[in-house]
Amino acid sequence: MIEQWLIDLAWMIAKILAVVVPLLIAVAYLTLAERRVIGFMQLRKGPNVVGPFGMFQPFADALKLMAKETILPAGADKVVFIIAPMLTFILALVAWAVIPFDAGLVLADINVGILYLFAISSLGVYGVIMAGWASNSKYAFLGALRSAAQMVSYEVSMGLVIINVLICVGSLNLSDIIEAQRDMWFALPLLPMFIVFFISTLAETNRAPFDLPEGESELVAGYFVEYSSMSFALFFLGEYANMILMSAMTTVLFLGGWLPPFDFAPFTWIPGPIWFVLKIMLCLFVFLWVRATTPRYRYDQLMRLGWKIFLPFSLIYVVLTAGFLMAFDKLPVIGG
Amino acid sequence: MAGLMVVSSRNPVHSVLFLILAFFNAAGLFILLNAEFLAMLLVVVYVGAVAVLFLFVVMMLDINYSELREGFQKYRSLGLLIGAVLLVELLATFFEYSGNVKSLPSPGAVHNTKALGQVIYTDYIYLFQLAGLILLVAMIGAIALTLRKRSGVRKQVIADQNSRTRAETVKLAKVETGAGVKEAS
């Protein structure tokens, strides 16, 4: 019995590693891809020296960060200061437990998968706000406050967009949500919501044009000014892992997850996980593209966009979607 | 344990962080009861939104610790009384119901998200709407109490800005060489 238990445990750890290791490699190459893509968009080359096409640049960066000294500021609250980057990074990883890569290919196929994702992404605020407060620095604190207000605001509209999708699906399970898109991806009938959701994810991950928490020109680097070496690296990795997570969420909700774009021969030859990864990469490219091309929002404009435009708009769209489905008798049959 | 740390830790920010831990424990209990929907809701609403606001307020406050200490001495007897009453109630409930838990519906028979929806939106729809209305009134009340119009504040009116046309803002002038510009407008 004990041996069986050990085998189960080892198998579970192997499965978790099978998700986390590719994710970390993806994060490493996302940092490289970001610098290269933005480089090309600005007519320069980006990092291209270390290895072929700069392929070893992320590892060089990681080595550099690990070799540096971890500095604890004198006035800092040490425990919270150390927990904050760990929290950010862990939250970015645990959310992957429910992401389905193919039919049945998921670590935990729980009934409330989308709520779990939503809950985890709403916890991301804590890493930021704890870091900002524990650093005992004005810049970090201001950055953290901005970030917290911003993330809480955009979560509301994200929640309403998710409700839109849920009305069309009738289930909170991520696999069910993807299967419901077999005939048509939700990005088409819910196009306005797709755009609102994508912009909200930009704000949620604190990416340009909503990267006010970092705001180099006014706050130095926002909430992680005081961090160095690995604790900084954890924030950095957490941010990029969050970007990939949000892209995966967009893919699951609107781009049909592992499903091929058309349900016939040449497209169905390519296996599901590859479609899934391709769609995530598309979303990530748009993330980088937006960063390279848009100027930063002003803070009051950011709040206005979140509360006065996205929130009422997505709320009205919920009513419209529900009304449409009722009128044409297309409400999904809710499974027991 | 986390609850104990909420009241006993010296630093109010630490108290709030322990409060969040307590919320997590509650969510874990819900999951153990097979009520995963409620657990997620607890995390989203309490941890994700309410506790963030708590943390905001606590971080902004400038708290005088010695004053807090005096208050503690003054209200200790009252606090102990309330605590004792709550403890007795809790124990009474525990002994009352510890024998028969068969009144719980068997978990897994009904999807608990669906069951909750059935109860709130079908069986008790009017009460639910009434509760929503009360919250709305409270929200409007809070806004009405804090909203004030200040004069002399420069505000950006975005509709005005967007409705401006090129003709009314930009004037192209052909300046003669060597003559210079007399007036700026």
Helical coverage of chain A, percent range:
55-70%
Assembly category:
heterodimer
SSE run of chain B: HHHHHHHH
- The span between the termini of chain A is 35 Å
- The number of helical runs of chain B is 8
Structural class of chain A: mainly alpha
Helices and strands of chain B: which structural class? Answer: mainly alpha
Helix content of chain B: over 70%
Order of helices and strands of chain A: HHHHHHHHHHHH
Task: Give the chain pair forming the largest contact, with residue counts.
Answer: A-B, 29 and 25 residues
Query: How many beta-strand segments of chain B?
Result: 0
Characterize the biggest β-sheet of chain B. none
As a whole number of angstroms, the C-alpha radius of gyration of chain A is: 21 Å
List the total number of helices of chain A: 12
What does this molecule look like?
Chain A is mostly helical. Helix content of chain A is 68%, strand content 0%. Chain A has 12 helices and no strands. Chain A has helices at 2-41, 57-67, 78-94, 113-134, 138-169, 174-179, 191-204, 216-219, 229-254, 265-268, 272-293, 299-327. In chain A, helix 1 crosses helix 9. The radius of gyration of chain A is 21 Å and the shape is globular. Chain B has helices at residues 2-8, 12-32, 36-60, 65-97, 112-123, 125-146, 158-163, 166-169. The radius of gyration of chain B is 29 Å and the shape is elongated. Helix content of chain B is 70%, strand content 0%. Chain B has a domain at 1-101. Chain B is built from 8 helices and no strands. Chain B is an all-alpha fold. Chains A and B meet through helix 4 and helix 5 of A and helix 2 and helix 3 of B.
